[in-house]
């Protein structure tokens, strides 16, 4: 049985379209597999808090994009972490979260098991740079403390800091145990 030329052309055209579509589908599958493989980064634990990327931090169980970004923001505004315990100063990370993630993180060059003697910072003599080392005290608040101190004299109690613009009850509670007068 002979096919007419018209039928032969139709069959050839359908076969050609089929192979083109098959090629497109195969190419997409290959590209998707390559993209997935390339996007999966292997992270070695423990993650170093002072150098970790957003992706590194998000690889820690219990740390999503919001907490990871908060860790980075805290690190940048405080000049880095001096201990793993300092993670408790990051919004959204409490004692329980720290307990869960502490085995996945480290701070290089810091002995984690020995607690260093805590020295309190005298807010009446500290420089702007020294004040910036306090939790939640960045450059703006540190300058405000110094300016207030220069205009109004020395602080006598922690509550006097509430008169400084930008310092509220929550900030005061975070620094109360780290300051002296």
UniProtKB/TrEMBL annotation:
**Which BP terms in the Gene Ontology apply to this protein?**
DNA repair; protein secretion by the type II secretion system
Q: Name one Pfam family in it.
A: HHH_3
Q: Which InterPro entries match?
A: Competence_ComEA_HhH, Endo/Exo/Phosphatase_dom_1, Hlx-hairpin-Hlx_DNA-bd_motif, RuvA_2-like
Q: Name one GO cellular component term.
A: type II protein secretion system complex
Q: What is this protein called?
A: ComEA protein-related protein
Please list which residues make up the signal peptide. none
Provide the organism lineage as a comma list.
Bacteria, Thermotogati, Thermotogota, Thermotogae, Thermotogales
Q: What residue stretches are annotated with the Helix-hairpin-helix DNA-binding motif class domain?
A: 55-74, 85-104, 129-148, 159-178
What's a single GO MF annotation on this record? DNA binding
Please give the start and end residues of each transmembrane region.
none
- Domain of life assignment: Bacteria
């Amino acid at each position: 049985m002979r096919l007419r030329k018209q039928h032969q052309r139709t069959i050839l055209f359908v076969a050609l379209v089929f192979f083109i579509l098959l090629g497109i589908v195969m190419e997409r599958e290959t590209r998707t597999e390559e993209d997935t493989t390339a996007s999966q980064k292997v992270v070695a634990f423990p993650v170093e808090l002072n150098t970790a990327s957003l992706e590194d931090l998000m690889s820690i169980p219990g740390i999503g994009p919001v907490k990871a970004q908060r860790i980075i923001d805290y690190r940048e505004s405080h000049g880095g972490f001096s201990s793993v315990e300092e993670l408790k100063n990051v919004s959204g990370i409490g004692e329980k979260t720290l307990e869960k993630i502490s085995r996945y993180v480290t701070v290089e060059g810091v002995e984690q098991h020995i607690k260093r003697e805590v020295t309190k910072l005298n807010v009446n003599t500290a420089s702007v740079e020294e004040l910036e080392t306090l939790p939640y005290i960045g450059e703006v608040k540190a300058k405000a403390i110094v300016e207030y101190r220069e205009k109004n004299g020395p602080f006598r109690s922690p509550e006097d800091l509430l008169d400084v613009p930008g310092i509220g009850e929550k900030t005061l509670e975070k620094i109360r145990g780290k300051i002296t007068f």
